[in-house]
Specification:
Number of domains: 1
Distance between the termini: 31 Å
Length: about 290
C-alpha cells in the first residue's frame, strides 16, 4: 500500500455526509496512536474544571477503579465510532453514556466543554505531532461527527464550526480553571495509571514527560511543578520525531483499536456495551444480550 492510500480514500468522501467514515480512517488507520493519546489528554484536561473534577472524585470511581473507568470510557467512545452513531450498537453506546450522565447534575456548559475538547484537542495534537498535517476535510468531519454525537446526548447550543469549538474550549478554560484538591486527586490517579503502561524503570520519566506536555494553564491549575527546559524539549521533541518516523512506514491495512492494546485490561473475556460504565444506586442496571464478545 502506498503511504497516501488512506488520504486518497478520504479525498473521495464528502465530510458533510461521510464524516463517520473519515473519522474511522483517521482514528484507526492514519493516526491511531495519536488519536488515542489526544483523546486521553482531552479527558485529562476536563478534570481541571472544578465542577467536573469534583464530581469525578465524589463518585469514588477514579480512585478505586481507575483502570476500569479508563477502559469503559475508551471502549464506549471507540465502539460508538467503529459501529456508527446510527447503528443499533452505536445507539446502545450513546444510551449508556446518557444513562450515566443523567444520574448526576451536570450542566450543559460542562457538557459542551467536554464535547469541545474532543473536537479541538485531537486536531491540535495532530497539527503538532502527527506524521502529516490534518486536512480541512478531516477537520470538518470531526466537527460534524461530534455535533451529531452532542445532539444525541441532548447537548444544546453546540458550536457551528471548528473555530466555534476552539473559542468555546479556550474561553471556558480561562473562566473555570483553578486549583481544586479533588480535581488534583483525580488527575494524580489518572497519571498513576498512565505510567503503568510503561516498564517500571521508565515510569518516573514518563510521569515527568506527561506533565511537560500539558498546556501551562492546565499544569498550573493542577499545581504540578514547572518542567525543566530539557524535560520539556525531550517530551515534545520525542513526539515530533515519532511523527516523522511514522511517516516513513506503510499505512495500517487493518484498523488499530485501543481495546486490542495492553492499555485496556478490564475485559479479557469480552464485554457488553450495556454493562460498561458506572451504575449509581439510583439507576437500575440495564440487562440484555451482549453487544460484543
Amino acid at each position: 500500500m502506498r503511504r497516501d492510500h488512506w488520504q486518497r480514500r478520504i479525498a473521495e468522501l464528502d465530510p458533510e455526509t461521510d464524516y463517520e467514515e473519515i473519522g474511522r480512517i483517521n482514528a484507526m488507520h492514519e493516526f491511531p496512536w495519536d488519536s488515542q493519546q489526544a483523546l486521553s489528554f482531552a479527558l485529562f484536561r476536563t478534570y481541571a474544571v472544578p465542577s467536573i473534577g469534583q464530581l469525578l472524585y465524589d463518585t469514588g470511581e477514579f480512585a478505586s477503579a481507575t483502570q476500569k473507568r479508563h477502559d469503559d470510557t475508551a471502549i464506549l467512545l471507540e465502539r460508538i465510532a467503529e459501529t456508527g452513531l446510527e447503528s443499533s450498537e452505536g445507539r446502545a453506546g450513546v444510551r449508556r453514556v446518557n444513562q450515566m450522565h443523567g444520574s448526576y447534575d451536570i450542566s450543559n456548559d460542562d457538557m459542551r466543554y467536554v464535547l469541545a475538547t474532543f473536537v479541538v484537542t485531537p486536531v491540535r495534537w495532530i497539527e503538532r505531532y502527527g506524521w502529516r498535517r490534518g486536512t480541512a476535510a478531516e477537520r470538518l468531519a470531526t466537527v460534524r461527527y461530534y455535533q451529531r454525537l452532542g445532539r444525541l446526548m441532548g447537548i444544546t447550543d453546540i458550536p457551528a464550526d471548528y473555530e466555534g469549538f476552539a473559542e468555546l474550549m479556550d474561553a471556558y478554560e480561562r473562566q473555570t480553571y483553578t486549583f481544586d484538591a479533588k480535581a488534583r486527586a483525580v488527575a494524580d490517579s489518572t497519571l498513576d495509571l498512565f505510567v503503568t503502561f510503561y516498564p517500571r524503570p521508565l515510569r518516573g520519566a514518563m510521569r515527568r514527560f506527561s506533565i511537560a506536555l500539558l498546556d501551562d494553564h492546565l499544569r498550573v491549575a493542577f499545581d504540578y511543578p514547572k518542567p525543566a527546559r530539557v524535560t520539556s524539549a525531550l517530551a515534545h521533541g520525542s513526539l515530533k520525531a515519532r511523527g516523522r518516523l511514522v511517516g516513513l512506514l506503510p499505512p495500517p491495512r487493518k484498523p488499530k483499536l485501543l481495546r486490542d492494546t495492553h492499555r485496556v485490561r478490564s475485559y479479557p473475556g469480552g464485554f457488553m456495551i450495556e454493562r460498561l460504565g458506572t451504575f449509581p444506586s439510583t439507576m437500575p442496571a440495564e440487562t440484555g444480550e451482549p453487544s460484543v464478545g
